[in-house]
Sequence to fold (796 residues):
Amino acid sequence: MRRLLYYALPPAVCLALFWRTLFTWFNTDDFGLLWLASTAHDPSSLAHALFHPIAQGTVRILSDRLFYLVIYSLFGIAAAPFHVAILLTWFATLGLASAVGTRITGSRAAGLVAALLWTTSKVMVSPLAWAAVYEVVLCSFFALAALYARIRWLDTRAPGWAATEWILYILGFGAQESMVMYPVAALLYTWAVAGRDIRKKGERGVFALFIPAAVFTAIHAFFIPKVPSEIYRIAVDARLPVTLSMYLRMAVGPEHYASRKILLPTLAIFAAWRMRRPASREFGAALFCVGWFLLWLVPVLPLPNHISEYYLTVPLAGLAWLAGWAAMAAWRSGWVARAGLGACLTLYLVNALPAIRNGTSWYKEGAARMRLAFRGMQEAAFEHPDTMVIFKGVDNDLFKMGFQDNPFRLAGVSQGFLAPGTENGISVARADLGGLSTLTISTEDALRAVESGRARVLELPTDAPARDVTGQFEIVARAEFLASRRNFVDAGRPEYSSRLGPSWHRIENDDRWMPKSATLQLAGPSSPAERLYVTGFGAAEALASGPVTLHFQVAGRDVGTATITQPGRPFQCDFGLPADLTGQYLVEVAIQTSRTFRAPGDGRELGMIFGTFAIR
Amino acid sequence: MRRLNNGASRLCCVILLLTGIGGCKRAKHDPEALVPEKAGPLLSAVSVNDPAASAQLVRGFHALEAGSWRWTQKQFEVALKPPPGAAENGARLSFKLNVPEGVVGKYGPVTLTATVNGLMLPSETYPKSGDYVYAQDVPATALKGDAVAVQFVSDKAIPPTAEDQRELSLIAVSIGLTPK
Fold:
C-alpha cells in the first residue's frame, strides 16, 4: 500500500495541476502531424508518413509519426486520447524519476520529492498541454527507463537488464535526437554514482552505447536534408554561455521570478557542499545530477534563436534530484534548516503553481478558439466542397494557434486566407513558416472568388461557432473595391454597374453595348496632366455602313472625338481634360455615337461596344 | 533478402491495418459548427457589438470587449448601406467613440479623419480623453450603390508591445449614416 502511494503521489499531484491538458485541443504543429497521419493509405504513403523528414530534418518515428498515426487512426481528430497518452507516459516517467532518484541520493524520500518538484515545474506546461512536443516526454521516459535498466544491470548483472537498456536506448532515437546524449549519462552514472572502474573489462561495455549515437548523428548530419532556417541556425559562438544562463534561469521558475535569485544559488551551494570531497560517493551523485542537467542541454545550446522552455524537460530531472536530495538533507538537519526548506519550497510553489494554471489555461482557451474555427472550416468544406475559405475576425491570439500550420487541408478546405486587411493586425507571423504571404488575398481577388462561388467567408467570433458571412462580405468587398478604384470603370464587370448611367445594355462577353448615347461616373483627375483613356471593340455590324465617330464629353465639356474604322478589332483612345476638373470628387463622362443599328431579331438600338474607362 | 522483404511487408500490413481501423477520417456533417448566413441587406448604422453587423466591420477593429466596444487600429474601415434618399439628399455620418487617456495622455490630442467612398470629410480633433461623436455631412455624390466604404484615420495610437501585440488607437461604439 505504501509502495502504491509512493508511486501514485506524483501522478496525482500532476493531474491536480495539469487537468486542463485533458481538455485542451490541438494547435500549431499538431495540424501538420495530423495531416501527415491522414495521408497514410498504402505502403508508399505510410512509408512517407513514417520516414519523410519534416521541419528541420526531424524523423521522430515514435513521438511524431506513430504517435499521431495510431491515435488519429483510432480516434480521428480528437485531442483527448493524445493527452491521455502523454500523461500516462509522464506518470511512468515520474515513477522512474523516483526510483532513479532514490538510487542516486540513497533516499526514497528524496526520490519522491524530486519527482514532485519535476512535475510542479512550469517547464512542464508545454510538454503536457501540446501534443506536438510529446517528443520531450517520451525522450524523458526512454532516457530514465534505459538508465533504470542500467542500474538494475549493475546490481544484478542479469543479461536481460542489459538487453532492456539497449532496446530502450535505441527506441529513444525514435523519440528525440537528444537521445544521443544517453551514453554520456550512462557512463557518468556508472563511474560517478555506481563507482565502477569503467576501464575494467566487465564495465567497458558502456562505451558500446556510443556507437548507435555516432551512427545516428552521422545519418542525421549527412543524409537527412534540412531546410535552411534562421530560427534553427546552429551557432557555436559567444552566445553559448548566454543561452545556458537563460536555460538555467528558466529551469527554476517563471520569468520575473524573484526567487530565482535564491533558489538557484541555494542549489549551487548544496551541490558544491556535496562535492567538497572528490573521492566520495556524494561527490559522484552531485556531479551526476549537475551533469545530467548540462549534458541533455548540449544539443540545444547551439540554437540561440530557438530557446524553448520545453527543451528543459529532460535536463530538469537532474536539478529535481539535486533539489530532492537538498530537501531531505535540510529536513534531517534541524529546525533552522527545515524552516529554510519551507521558505524555499513556498517560494518555488507560490510562483510555479499560478504559472502552471495560467499556462494550461492559455493552451486550453486558445486551442478552444482554434477548435471552433476548425469545426467551421470542416462544415464549410462539407457544405461547399473544393472551395477556399476566407476568415474574418482572426487576431494575434487565434493566429498563433495554427493559422501558419495549414489546418485548412486537414479540414478539407482547399485554401485558407485572412480577410483582406486582417494581415495589418497580425504581428506574430513567423518568417520561417512563410510569414503572411500565403495567407494574404487582395480585396479584388477575394471578391472574384466569392462572386464565382469559389470561396466562402467565415466570421470567427471569440467564443462562439463560426458564422457564414459570404453574402455580406461580397457586398462589403464590392463597396471597398469600388472606393479604391474610383478613377476606373470596366463596363463589362457587374461590380461597376452602379457607376453606369441607365441607358447601357446588359453585359455580353465581358463587354457592353451602348445605344446612341450613354454616361458613366469617374473620379476627377488628380492633376492637370491626367487624361481619359477608353477601350472598346469595333463590332463589324456597327461598322458595316462605314466608320463610326464617337463624341466624348466630361462634366458637360467636349474633350474630343474618336473615329472607329477597323471592324472586328479592339480600339483605344485617350483625351486631355480641362484643368479646372482637377480634384473634383466625381465627373460624368458622356458618349455619343454618330450612328446606331438594330440587329435582326434584336430590338435594341446598338451603337458601340465598350470595355474600360479610366482617368489617370 | 526475401525473408526481410516479407517481414517488412508484414509490418506495413499490420500498421496499415491499424491505420485503416479509422479509415479515411472524413468530416461529419455538423450543422452546429457553422451558423448559416441570414439573408438580409447591410445596415446603415452598426453597433460594434452587433453580431449581425460584424461583417460590415471591414478592417482595423479588434475583438469585442465587455460585450459593448472594440479597440481600433489607427486606420479602420466600415461598410454602411446608404440610408433611403441618401443618393439624392446626402446623409450624416456619426461615429460614437471614446478617446482613451492612455492615448491622448501620452501622445497628445487625437485628430480623426473620415473618407466616404474616397471623399475626404473634415477632420475633428479631440484634445482630452472622453466620449465624443464624430459627425459630418456626406454629400449625395459619395453615397451611390448598395454600400459605401467609410475609412477612418486617427493620427495617434499605442504601438504594439510585448504584453499587447495590438495597435490601439480609439474605442469604437457605433458608426452610422442617418438621412438628412
